[in-house]
Amino acid sequence: MTLTEGQRVKLVADTRLTDWVATTAQDPSDPVAVAGSLSMAAGTEGAVVRVVEHDEQSQEAREYDRLRSLLESFGRDMPLESKRQLEEKVAGLEPAWIAYQEQRNRVTVRVRFDNGFILDDARDDLFTPA
């Protein structure tokens, strides 16, 4: 499912959020770490504020794409030995390309809930259209 900015959404499942906050006690030289958690119920509604698509293509996958394009465009006009070497390089990089193709581009969202809370960098599959 593709989420868009401004779209109304709701949480698919109960979601527990935890974090550590560093504060200072009465004595500024005595820092205190406080842990806290917040649970948000499934069905909590809000609006998508931001959508970020993360493309995590490796250097090897980019190189495969570049060399494959080169081979497809100019392979028929290349000297046989050069073409064979290029085909070997492409074949060696193919596992990285396959791994990249199999992984889903990660999408994260920022959602402002109706209760005022903001959840940032959350996976898009935590939400469904409201």
First and last CA, distance: 13 Å
Structural class: alpha+beta
- Can you tell me the overall shape? elongated
Low-confidence stretches: none
Count of helical stretches: 2
Question: What is the count of β-strands?
Answer: 7
Beta-strand content bin: 35-45%
Which helices and strands appear, and what pairs or packs with what?
Elements: E1 8-11, E2 15-24, E3 31-40, E4 45-54, H1 59-74, H2 80-102, E5 106-113, E6 118-123, E7 127-129
Antiparallel strand pairs: 1-4, 1-7, 2-3, 4-5, 5-6
Helix pairs in contact: 1-2
Write up what this structure looks like:
- This protein has helices at 59-74, 80-102, and strands at residues 8-11, 15-24, 31-40, 45-54, 106-113, 118-123, 127-129.
- It has 130 residues and is of the alpha+beta class.
- The strands form two sheets. A five-stranded antiparallel β-sheet has the order 6-5-4-1-7, with no helix packed on it. Strands 2-3 form a two-stranded antiparallel ribbon.
- Strand 2 and strand 3 (31-40) form a beta hairpin.
List keywords for this structure.
130 residues, five-stranded antiparallel beta sheet, two-stranded antiparallel ribbon
In short:
This protein is an alpha+beta fold and 130 residues long.
